[in-house]
## 1
Amino acid sequence: MTTSLVPNRRLLVLACSAMKRRDADYMPARLRYDGPLWRTLRSVDPDGTRAKVAFLSAHYGFRDAETPIAYYDARLTPDLAGRMIAGGMTTRWPRPRRRNGPDNAGMHPGHEIASMSRYGREPFGDVALIGGGLYLTVMSAMLAGFQRMGCVATDAAVTTINGPIGRMRQDLRRWLLMVGDGRGDAP
């Protein structure tokens, strides 16, 4: 059996979206983000059964897309991307509000990916990273950490999707609908 036939062994990592629902309450990130890629995700996989989905956010860091989040407005900068990469698997996001405050807020990428992969018992074998260049740089660094942790297989198929938004939406749809061994068998 190939990994692309096993949805719980497929991981989709999407960049957050500038377009967000402005509802006052917390809601799952999968519903909060309302940009074109997130709309494509909800349209193609309304039940969330084709892959486990995570997001990378300038505010929340790396999280499971089922995580309830509040509305926020933050952009990923080169400086912040560098700090996320340097922080690796153990730096919590969001960072404490006070520089000298306790580092007990937020979650760290290592915890999130461990939980999503059932603590390495079901490592991901098929991964798609989708976003702009800066997001992809951080995602790639995190992917290497996830592989060292055993939460993503070292021989996992990795698809990187970047480019014009229309093409990204098509490629996301194709990846979500992929069957077989992942070598062009998309419906």
## 2
Amino acid sequence: MTWENWIGRSAQFRDLLTPAALARFCATLDHLWDMQGNAPAAPQGIHWCLCLPDAPTAQLGTDGHPRRDDSPDSFMPPLPLPRRMWAASNVHFHAPISAGAAIDRTSTIASITEKNGSTGQLFFVEVANDTMADGALAVRETQSIVFRAPAPIIKPVPTIPAAPASAPDLSSWQWQRKVTPYAAMLFRYSALTFNSHRIHYDTPYAQHEEGYPDLVVHGPLTATLLLDLAQRQLGINALKHFQMRAISPAFVNQDLYLVGKPAEDGGWTLAALGPDGRTIMTAKAG
């Protein structure tokens, strides 16, 4: 099957950022922002919790994602590879989103590219998203989503190497914050984003079907924590641009080191590191 007819396909979503939803977002991430006053601006990263796919439960696939097919109403193409991962995003922040704002999002399939990597066949789908708040452009983002072949059955279940006795060397990083994504944080973020992908809450599925040693931390959650790090240092809604790339998975109950420093060409270089110093995510912000 060719996928050219999916390029340019669009979908429209509507939502409302209620004060209650904003408060739950801040509570999940232990945000420090004072939510008092009239229509406070939401911290950056809230857009990933808005205009969410709401397929009925009966239409979910075995992995928890909405099933993909070739019907005219299907947005994501029915690519022949089952596993999906949010690989990268390029985000431009145009205006803050306030509590009570009416949200409209247009999502468009920008490209579909087939590649062969070290693990076999891959498909990269780029999705362009324009998020409007009360009729004004708030966020423009291009997401890169990768689809992969089924994981090989591994027995026994892979294990996470024991964390070193000491934290990784962070001496070259100006900003530093340690967060441990416990199961409750993963559960809350899944609820905020209406994300039923089973790798985030179903340990047997994550281990036996997708080959992970434990529950996987959401890529958008890690990216949101990096945005939070920058906003704790620079102030709320300080960034105009954020570009991230997922390098390797982070796992539940494992320390996550969020770090940042000035970039040589301006702006800030950010990263999320595992307890062994392994790079989870890289980002550039400005």
